[in-house]
Amino acid sequence: MDVLLNLTINGIATGSLIFLLAAGLTLIFGLMHVLNFAHGALFAWGAYFGVWIYTQTDSFLVGILGAIVIGGLLGWLLERWIIQPVYTNTMSQIQVTMGLLLVMNECLKVFFGPNQVSVRLPDYLDQSWLLGGVILIKYRLFVIAIGILVFLGVQYMLKRTRLGLIVRAGVMNKEMVQALGINIKKVFLYVFILGSSMAALGGMLFAPYSGVIHAGIGMDYGILAFIVVVIGGMGSIVGSAMAALLVGVLGAFMTYFVPSVALAVNMLLMFGVLMFRPAGLFGR
Amino acid sequence: MKTNWLVSSRLWMGMAAILLIGFPFVSDSRSALILLTQIFIYAVFAMSYDILLGYTGIISFGHAMFFGIGAYTTAIFLHRWDHTMLAFLVSLLVVLVLTGIVSYLIGVMTLRLKSHFYAMLTLAVAGLFLVLAEKWRDLTKGSDGFTFYIPDVLKDRTTLYFASFFFMIIMFFLLKRFTDSPTGKVLQAIRENEQRTESLGYQILHYKIIASVVAGLAAGMSGSMYAITLRFVNTAVFGTNVTLDALLMTIVGGVGTLFGSIVGSALILLVHAGLTDLAKIHWIFERWMIFFGALYILAVMFFPQGVVGMLRQWKEKWKRA
Amino acid sequence: MTLLKVDRIETYIGQYHILQGVSFEVKQGEVTVLLGRNGAGKTTTLRSLMGLNPISTGSITFKGESIHHLPTYEIARKGIGYVPEDQGVFPDLTIEENIRLAMQKSDDATLERRDWILNLFPDLKTFWKKPSGLLSGGQKQMLAIARACVNDNELLLIDEPSKGLAPIMVEKVMNVLQEMKDRVTVVLVEQNFYMASTIGDGYYIIDDGRTVHSGQMAELKVNESLKKEYLGIA
């Protein structure tokens, strides 16, 4: 019983991390119809640069802020110089973003060396409580809390701000948004920056969660985030949040009980969804 | 129409072929021979990718799975059964059956999807094969891989060179024939305008599956040959990089030309060899993927017609002048 | 005074040469009707004016300023409202959100215009907080017109407002357009000849991507041969 509870909490924490990555992916796809294969690379960059800043300044919080800023900056550069020229050409878009994933991963190896980097938590987050047989690890709760905060923040943005209104309208009909006098390209840029910083934040939080980071995490978690986005329905934040929890918890249980098929289960789930419910499990 | 020997591509191809046939007799550079052998084999893999990308307009990020299936099947046959020509030929047959089945199944299940999803799904499926190769240790010895003996006939580097060369030539003409066939024409129509082709009464999915199977078969064969040249196999053959190499070669050489894949393969592998040499001078050249990746992005964005496409454009201009 | 001048514009969509020379002028305060058969290029003309299908040659001058090189959103901000054929309402947004999205400013003048237009369309107020996807075809049309009027637009481009509407709704939409006439200039694409002839001042006939005929609506009403030739109205 306690094992199950622990696994669930573990899974929710992993789900929160995947959500941070999937949220940007789904928003960007929903609004711009760009499936950004390089999204996972932003996760990895967030992890590496966040950790680097963390070790330089000796402050975990500064590291987190640094990761967010770097993610946003990268998002701005990528959108402006790489994504924008290929908006209307799906084939080029897929190829260019994939190439980008590769280049960005290689860059990490150049900057930080090809070997994996180990990361330690700051003492104040490195605690756990024993609560009637259930181990509550502080950092996991911290990750879950940030996941919830970001979820609420994105929801607030979508439902209560003008930017969110434009995003929701743009998902339905981009031409009409522009015919109403709104510069949707600017909104694309904002959304891309937002998505990129969330991905980088996810990577930074992941680093001490797993203890080690390597350049391959971009690809690994990118695929997980994609699975989540498909299951949750492209463009749906709520769907992505639920799917991230599902994939996270399912993953935690699978890794514990039948580790060899953990990834396969998620893949099959995605396959099934794409075959039979292409709008996603939680879509309409 | 003015005929000009300078722009006759057949003539150039013929001359290149003669040079390549003569090469082993004038050069005794072992490394050059091995490099050329690799170029031939990668050219077949890139051509198989061109069937998808250039002729049908499909982007797969999992094409390495067929390459890997080919490499592992041949390696396992030679290692477990016998290192004879018979074992090798049987393994080729098995490769054709396996890649045929896998490409057909994957095609049926995923080619209905939009290009984004297809690309992502193939990436993920290839990832599964990689995991499978790592976990099925009894058969694959995990990620370390294993070495094996190859048939004595092929042990001689020159023989292998010619075998690979003719392998490439044969595959080129077979695939050329395929793309010139009525089926190939339909595929190109799909690439140009999927909706219109569908409204003409063609079953898009059916034709895309054919393309996927043909590409899968050719890729599988190139994987077999690749394993033979290395006499070693490990999980790297399933890596995404392998697929991206093919993508890069096809793009740089020129999509939808087949011949461009050969040019692309030569260019990329020659540059790769050059960069590897430079790595002795500066470590940054060890990370040659950065250069290729950047080259690839630039090629897609600014140079979509590739080398052969560009030469053809020049040729057209020359003819008109 | 000429508000909009369209001079020999040509537009390609993909490889198709849709507009092959469309020219017309719109006088301030008038309703100019574009007539023509299905597929003649009327919708594409409006889309080209909005920059949604950019023109390849020719020029579009609005208030003496050439606008055809501008992106869609800047054209809209020059003071042109657009009501597309499918109304372009955002079904998941409420009516209030649809209107709020359209409001480029929230100053008193804009709010005043909003209240004025909502008084013309009381239905919209009734369903104010409901998703606009639930509205009927006629109500969606009203929402789309309201959205185009809420900014200080001098020109409205309206694509077939009567399409798919019951006769009583057509009447309603017509009345509203009549009422707006002293506020805005309108370019109207309309197949419903009754509506076109009732509210239109000048007309242009587009055929095979070209303007082939023009004049005053009053003359067209009695010119049976012209109506038959280009509009298929006996």
TrEMBL record, chain A:
Residue ranges of the TM segments: 12-30, 37-54, 60-78, 137-158, 187-209, 221-249, 256-276
Pfam families assigned to the protein according to its UniProt record, in alphabetical order: BPD_transp_2
Family designation: Belongs to the binding-protein-dependent transport system permease family. LivHM subfamily.
Source organism superkingdom: Bacteria
UniProt record, GO biological process: amino acid transport
GO molecular function, one term: transmembrane transporter activity
Protein's recorded name: Branched-chain amino acid ABC transporter permease
Annotated Gene Ontology cellular component terms: plasma membrane
From TrEMBL, chain B:
GO MF annotation: an example: branched-chain amino acid transmembrane transporter activity
Subcellular location: Cell membrane
Keywords of this entry: Cell membrane, Membrane, Transmembrane, Transmembrane helix
One Pfam short name: BPD_transp_2
Record-level GO cellular component terms: plasma membrane
Topological relation to the membrane, as annotated: Multi-pass membrane protein
Domain of life, source organism: Bacteria
Annotated coiled-coil segments of the chain: none
Transmembrane residue ranges: 6-26, 33-52, 58-78, 85-109, 115-133, 158-175, 209-234, 246-270, 290-311
Protein name from the UniProt record: Branched-chain amino acid ABC transporter permease
From TrEMBL, chain C:
Domain (ABC transporter): residue spans on this chain: 4-233
Name under which the protein is recorded: ABC transporter ATP-binding protein
InterPro entries according to UniProt: AAA+_ATPase (IPR003593), ABC_transporter-like_ATP-bd (IPR003439), BCAA_Transport_ATP-bd_LivF (IPR052156), P-loop_NTPase (IPR027417)
Keywords: Amino-acid transport, ATP-binding, Nucleotide-binding, Transport
GO molecular function per UniProt: ATP binding; ATP hydrolysis activity; branched-chain amino acid transmembrane transporter activity
Alphabetical GO biological process terms: L-amino acid transport
UniProt key word Iron-sulfur: no
PANTHER family: ABC TRANSPORTER ATP-BINDING PROTEIN (PTHR43820:SF2), HIGH-AFFINITY BRANCHED-CHAIN AMINO ACID TRANSPORT ATP-BINDING PROTEIN LIVF (PTHR43820)
Family the entry assigns: Belongs to the ABC transporter superfamily.
Entry keyword Signal: no
Originating species: Brevibacillus invocatus
SMART domains xref list: AAA
